[in-house]
TrEMBL record, chains A, B:
Start and end residues of each Saccharopine dehydrogenase NADP binding domain: 5-146
Name of this chain's protein: Carboxynorspermidine dehydrogenase
PANTHER family for the chain: CARBOXYNORSPERMIDINE SYNTHASE (PTHR43796:SF2)
Segments crossing the lipid bilayer: none
Species this protein is from: Halopseudomonas litoralis
Length: 412, 412
């Protein structure tokens, strides 16, 4: 049975989600895109039509919506008869949109954890602060809610579960590595909204080590890996969503997340941060003007959406899993490589938006097909991840595995 | 005969000038301090009284003055019966203050070249664009005007003239080196107003080489010297006032200025400059607020005046002079070393303000004594520099010379 989709958000990831839903509207039905600025939704609608992404005839409409307004969101779900809501808006709206889904019975999918605008890096596990408080309500209302089903979190959670379930007797370490080896050609730019981007790096870094939460500072712990296709890259231990569910759902004592940064990025970040230019607190100039430094820095940086047309190179994101199999030490790397220029050619966004936007569409298809229509709240690793990996192989994000037997496509 | 002094400006250099004038008010007479913000002048007056710097009883008063208003400046000169005007205000007021001196007959002294707020790095020689256009008028009115009589320009011009006149048959190279080996203890700070400080480095670098003007970019040409007291330091070819008079007044084919910068300073400067954060052109934030980036950077940086109490270490500024004497190659280094903490202890300012503020007081004393009362406009190298060096030895800025015969105090 077809299920209509309501996409909330109108940024680079929403653009990918819309194109991918359109490519599969024989399964997904009508597509509606809503955000505060209806013009941005309309631009995505126009882009989908221009590229001829709709597989079959079907509705494709833009809507204005303040997604913090639960009643307005419920009304739009009802009016558009949407059974699937893909939330790729700001991380501040998750709980409102989830509530609207619970009250209307629509399935809920998102790609990043809920955030309170006034708080950075709350107490772990982060999901317990907001989303998981609605688990019982979802189950009572038979609402399917799949949390964090982008690439990271999302696909990397599936890689972790598959590693644990298929390749080991026991797993000691999961290291999730996210490397963007692409080039945007500017002196410095962030790949998404600088305000959100820098929030990830100005607080504490939580990791799961020896089965407990450990705190570090950003750029304190570094590793260097020689990775498939992209080669040798350094990455830094970073706080990230997926650790906060994997640590609960998998019996693995060490789970860490590593984000790749070049020396140049770190240097610019360090200078700006040290001078107080990444602060969200307003300062006053000698002339008496009140300014938030971070907002001015954002204004001088390139608009992330403007980077896509000239973005070249590839991303490599995956899980290094270590443990025991038949009494012996074993290590595997499950990963995907995506190409910025190919992503832009297909859906008009760069590779980072592409890797984040394709997985929730795969999840939506699996719900529509009844495979993942679990009628409760889950994180990705709690689901059967094999059909997810197989479907991603078909729709643009192939998974590979590298181990003692070589480097090959992973499918089931 | 005593000559009353009007000090224009109320920054760190004005603070030094006021203290030094007070220490010599048996020669200099009454002291008046004027700037737009009378409170800042009053703070200096209070500081002079607190430290008991006045040598003999005498007037010491603060005044409010817009020094761009020539009539107001003339009126204040008349009212205070000042015969000496020491202009250590912003570089934008030189021509107005000079005009007021010409019309009242007061002697004029400054420590930096005139600047037009809308222009950076004009055509050389810079003095010809503004100051030198009044040479004839000064001579006609028998007005003594000594241009650029701080440390650099100023004392280093005297060093150049003494090198040429006393130690060589012919001079091929004068390299003026300015090293601040002090530490203010902050991640980053400028030693004077960031808006003025960064202006020096964002334009072209003019130097005098093979008897003609040569252009470079900032941080393009580097040298490293092992200097007395402060040790090994790197410096970069920088555009600076003194080249624009020395090139005319001395028969020396190569005259260059080198400013010392640490790698950290250059890195922070490069990041800010590359991102557009040092721009004087307003930008608009996503929220519609119009902001001049440089003014916001200034607001997050430490107030230069706040650095003095904790400043430690020393400055070393001097001239490396190379040429021929009795048919042989010869090289000398004439220099001063100043100490930040000692300067603060004596006059409540750090060493950079101290080196800039003591020389114009020495010049004022020499005018009052009749030694430098030349009744025309001159740059320092056109005067007899020996009494200037001797006086500076006595009042806080001793000159040393280092050559084949060793390293010793220089006096005449």
């Amino acid at each position: 049975m077809k299920r209509n989709v309501l996409i909330i958000g109108a940024g680079g990831v929403a653009q990918v989600v819309a194109h991918k839903c359109a490519q599969h509207n024989d399964v997904l039905g009508n597509i509606h895109i809503a955000s505060r600025t209806v013009e941005k939704c309309q631009e995505i609608v126009d882009s989908v039509r221009e590229k001829g992404s709709l597989k079959t005839a079907g509705e494709l409409q833009a809507h204005a919506l303040d997604a913090l307004d639960i009643e307005a969101t419920k009304a739009l779900i009802a009016k558009t008869q949407s059974q699937l809501v893909i939330n790729v808006g700001s991380p501040f709206i998750n709980m409102s949109v989830l509530q609207a889904c619970i009250e209307t019975g629509a399935a809920y999918l998102d790609t990043a954890i809920h955030e309170d605008p006034d708080k950075i890096c709350e107490t772990p596990p982060w999901y317990a602060n907001y989303e998981w408080k609605r688990r019982e309500l979802c189950a009572e209302n038979k609402v399917t809610a799949i949390l964090g089903v982008g690439f990271d979190p999302g696909v990397v959670n599936a890689y972790a579960a598959i590693g644990v379930n298929e390749y080991f007797d026991s797993v000691s370490d999961i290291d999730i590595i996210d490397i963007n080896a692409g080039s945007h050609g500017h002196y410095f730019a962030t790949n998404f909204d600088p305000e959100i981007n820098f929030r990830e790096f100005t607080g504490r870094v939580w990791s799961w080590q020896n089965s407990q939460w450990v705190q570090n500072k950003m750029f304190e712990v570094k590793r260097t890996d020689d990775l498939p296709v992209v080669g040798q890259h350094s990455s830094y231990m970073t706080g990230h969503d997926e650790l906060h569910s994997l640590s609960k759902n998998l019996d693995v004592p060490n789970i860490r997340f590593w984000m790749g940064f070049g020396d140049h990025y770190i240097n610019v970040f360090t200078v700006l941060n040290s001078l107080g230019l990444l602060s969200e607190q307003p300062i006053t100039t000698a002339e008496g003007l009140e300014v938030v430094p971070l907002k001015m820095v954002k204004a001088v940086l390139p608009d992330p959406a403007s980077l896509a047309p000239k973005y070249t190179g590839k991303t490599c994101i995956g899980d290094i899993v270590k443990g025991k199999k038949d009494g012996k030490d074993k290590e595997i790397f499950i990963y995907n490589v995506a190409d910025h220029a190919e992503a832009y050619e297909e859906v008009g966004s760069q590779g980072i938006s592409y890797t984040a936007g394709v997985p929730p569409v795969a999840a939506a298809i699996l719900i529509a097909q009844g495979v993942w229509d679990v009628q409760k709240m889950v994180n990705v690793e709690e689901l059967d991840c094999k059909p997810f990996i197989n479907l991603l192989n078909e729709i643009g994000l192939p998974t590979r595995i590298k181990d003692a037997d070589g480097d090959r496509l992973l499918s089931f």
